[in-house]
Automatic annotation (TrEMBL):
One of its GO terms (cellular component) is endosome membrane. It is a peripheral membrane protein. It is found in: Cytoplasm; Endosome membrane; Golgi apparatus, trans-Golgi network membrane; Prevacuolar compartment membrane. Keywords: Cytoplasm, Endosome, Golgi apparatus, Membrane, Protein transport, Transport. Plays a role in vesicular protein sorting. Gene3D superfamilies: Vacuolar protein sorting-associated protein 35, helical subcomplex Vps35-C. It comes from Castanea mollissima (Chinese chestnut). SUPFAM superfamilies: ARM repeat. This is Vacuolar protein sorting-associated protein 35. GO terms for biological process: intracellular protein transport; retrograde transport, endosome to Golgi.
Length: 790
């Protein structure tokens, strides 16, 4: 009976070791004196210490090792017949007279080892005799260590092919039979060990039992090393016997360990050729056995075997490895009704990894694995288990990593069906994995059908799922997700304008469901894709008729207008205004005046009705002026209307300095420096004079409110505009006007009311140096500047 007292166990162990040492001392004296009778007497007394039932397996092992070391010395004595004068046959009979069975069996095994070496009897007969007689010890711990001793002393004396103990043609089978019989008996003892001792020490005992597993497993290692065990013998004799023992023992610890041993010990080729037999045992194992790890290790070994040489791949096809593994996994999942969902998905991940490594060309196999996973997931509600979610992400990521081509995944019919079983958060994680794969491998998604499937896969990023509102999300994460979608849109391209338009329409249909927070991220890249298409059509100088909509610039501009309107409704007016101006510029390049005018009109409407912030107004009006200045498609009437609006809004800005700068920027609208550009010198001068008046008013206001008129920066900026138009040949800008402005600035700077400002002083000084430089340069420009005094 096992005692739960560590101190008592230590005491008993110490007593046992002391007794072994005491008897070993007298045994050594007898050996030195070549006294066989005394040697057998003291060795039997020494071995009697192993009869104890008080020690745990761990402590018993320490005691056993002390006795084992002494038996080595005894064996050396038995080998030398000249020392004891008894033939080995007589000695084999003599030791069987020991009083107790345990010492008798240890002595018998020791003499048996010498008996086999003497070759006075066939090795198979001696081994058979020993393995049968060991049945006399049925106590689990004592029997296990006794048989371990038998395995240890016999491992180099088996009648194997090429061994010095090889007998007749059937000798290999005899060796196998001996090892199998010893393995079977050891496993029975090992399994029975769990029932030793009271329930309160069961957990500790189970741990120690686990530590003894190698004693049993060594038999399988020996089997794997027997040269004569070829594939035929392994298939017909070894594997069925081992599996029968594993299944019948009905112990989860033994079943898991021994299945793992089989996979690790025997060659990969044998596993492949006996796959059906090996897999057939899996559903028969106890429900508590970790079958998923066993099968995963088997598939990993087979994958590595396939990767080792292309020559072995036909074998996999010949034995239909995929079909057998797939079927076995299905049976295991069916048999183990309580297997957690993460276990089932882990099995499918291993099967998919195997498939991708062994049959990378068989996409139908990949889809089949995903389909089996869908079937399993369908029986459950949405996944809650975090580990299961990670396994599904691993399952879906595997094809992307293998093929480095997300388009492959788009052809798998079950891929989106697996994603449908993910919760919203994990769905988004997987969508990001897909996008990252596309970005990393520069995958071009080039058809509308592919785009439709892709956007169905990443729908978690482009619209709210099942009531998950976008405003519930972390802002930084949300922005990162949407920027990824925006980058993805830039990867969608086709050289065929008709197909590219279909792609744009497909994406538009998807992203328009995204809600107000997403549209500012997803609409701009799509608009630029459409603008790229317009320029592509322009370079081809023609329109392409599609099935649904003709790919004409006019039609595309209509689509663009719809998309930007959705942005202004978000509201995101500043972004919408920028995009309207981009479209106006594209319409200008296509020579479509009405379209360009409409986009400008929309931009002005937005400016009037939606943009209220003064800083945003300043930015917007400069964008409008800059874009309008570059466009040349407008007739006189339309251009006058737009420039009048721009100058009007410039003069209505809130702050005087902003007004001034916007008004002098408008001067460029009346003087476009190209061959056919407008050159209206009078209106340029009007703008600049108006800017001067506003600058003067700004100085006076500053004087009233602050007691000083502030820096003269605005005047210097206007002076620079005068110089620009003077050099461009505007007849209304004369040297006298420039001279007057220089004098005005000089006077202002010398005024006591003007606050000193180093930046504006340096700006003015730099401008004067420029004028001086132009005067000194000579030539036509030098002559123009002659009359300006600085």
């Amino acid at each position: 009976m096992m005692i739960n007292g560590i101190e008592d166990e230590d005491k008993w162990l110490a007593e046992g070791i002391a007794a072994i040492q005491h008897n070993a001392f007298y045994m050594h004296r007898a050996l030195d004196a070549n006294n066989l009778r005394e040697a057998l007497k003291y060795s039997a007394q020494m071995l009697s210490e192993l009869r104890t039932s008080k020690l745990s397996p761990h402590k018993y092992y320490e005691l056993y090792m002390r006795a084992f070391d002494e038996l080595r010395k005894l064996e050396m004595f038995f080998k030398d017949e000249s020392r004891h004068g008894v033939s080995i046959v007589d000695l084999y009979e003599l030791v069987q007279h020991a009083g107790n069975i345990l010492p008798r069996m240890y002595l018998l095994c020791t003499v048996g080892s010498v008996y086999i070496k003497s070759k006075e009897a066939p090795a198979k007969d001696v081994l058979k005799d020993l393995v049968e007689m060991c049945r006399g010890v049925q106590h689990p711990i004592r029997g296990l260590f006794l048989r371990s001793y038998l395995a240890q002393i016999s491992r180099d004396k088996l009648p194997d092919i090429g061994s010095e103990y090889e007998g007749d043609a059937d000798s290999v089978m005899d060796a196998v039979e001996f090892v199998l019989q010893n393995f079977t008996e050891m496993n029975k003892l090992w399994v029975r060990l769990q029932h030793q001792g009271p329930g309160r020490v069961r957990e500790k005992l189970e741990k120690e039992r686990s530590e003894l597993r190698d004693l049993v497993g060594k038999n399988l290692h020996v089997l794997g090393q027997i040269e004569g065990v070829d594939l035929g013998m392994y298939k017909d004799a070894v594997l069925p016997r081992v599996l029968e023992q594993i299944v019948n023992c009905s112990d989860d610890l033994a079943q898991y360990y021994l299945m793992d041993c089989i996979i690790q010990v025997f060659p990969d080729e044998y596993h492949l050729q006996t796959l059906e037999t090996l897999l057939g045992a899996c559903p028969q194992l106890q429900p508590t056995v970790d079958v998923k790890t066993v099968l995963s290790q088997l598939m990993e070994r087979l994958s590595n075997y396939a990767a080792s040489s292309t020559d072995v791949l036909p074998e996999f096809l010949q034995v239909e490895a995929f079909a057998k593994l797939s079927s076995a996994i299905g049976r295991v999942i069916e048999a183990q009704v309580n297997m957690p969902i993460v276990g089932a998905i882990t099995l499918y991940v291993s099967l998919l990894t195997f498939t991708l490594r062994v049959h990378p060309d068989r996409l139908d196999y990949v889809d089949q694995v995903l389909g089996a996973c869908v079937k399993k997931l369908s029986s459950k509600p949405k996944l809650e288990d975090q580990r299961a979610k990670k396994q599904v992400v691993a399952l879906l990521s595997a094809p992307l990593e293998k093929y480095n081509d997300a388009v492959m995944a788009l052809t798998l019919s079950n891929y989106p069906r697996v994603m449908d079983h993910l919760d919203n958060e994990t769905n988004k994680v997987m969508a990001m994995v897909i996008i990252e794969s596309i970005m990393k491998n520069y995958t071009c998604i080039s058809t509308a059908d592919q785009v439709e499937v892709l956007f169905e896969l990443i729908k978690g990023l482009i619209k709210d799922l099942d009531g998950t509102a976008a405003d519930e999300l972390d802002e930084e994460d949300f922005n990162e997700e949407q920027n990824s979608v925006a980058r993805l849109i830039h990867m969608l391209y086709n050289d065929d304008p008709e197909e590219l338009l279909k792609i744009i329409c497909t994406v538009k249909k998807s992203i328009m469901k995204g809600g107000p927070r997403r549209l500012p991220f997803t609409v701009p890249p799509l608009i630029f894709s459409a603008l790229r298409l317009i320029r592509q059509l322009q370079s081809q100088d023609g329109d392409v008729a599609g099935e649904e909509v003709p790919a004409t610039p006019k039609k595309i501009f209509q689509i663009l207008n719809e998309m930007i309107e959705s942005l202004s409704a978000v509201p995101s007016p500043e972004l919408a205004l920028r995009l309207y101006l981009q479209c106006a510029e594209a319409a200008n390049d296509c020579g479509l005046e009405p379209v360009a005018y409409e986009f400008f009109t929309q931009a002005f409407v937005l400016y009037e009705e939606e943009i209220a912030d003064s800083k945003a107004q300043v930015t917007a009006i400069h964008l409008i002026i800059g874009t309008l200045q570059r466009l040349n498609v407008f007739g006189v009437e339309n251009r006058d209307t737009l420039t009048h609006k721009a100058t009007g809004y410039s003069a209505k800005l809130l702050k005087k300095p902003d007004q001034c700068r916007a008004v002098y920027a408008c001067s460029h609208l009346f003087w476009v420096d190209d061959q056919d550009g407008i050159k209206d010198g009078e209106r340029v001068l009007l703008c600049l004079k108006r800017a001067l008046r506003i600058a003067n008013a700004a100085q006076q206001m500053a004087n009233v409110t602050r007691g000083n008129s502030g820096p003269v920066t605005l005047f210097v900026e206007i002076l620079n505009k005068y110089l620009y138009f003077f050099e461009k040949g505007n007849p209304q800008i004369t040297s006298a006007a420039i001279q007057g402005l220089i004098e005005l600035i000089t006077t202002e700077m010398q005024s006591e009311s003007t606050a000193p400002n180093a930046a504006s002083d340096a700006f003015f000084a730099s401008t004067l140096r420029y004028i001086q430089f132009q005067k000194q340069k000579g030539g036509a420009m030098g002559e123009k500047y002659d009359s300006v005094k600085v």
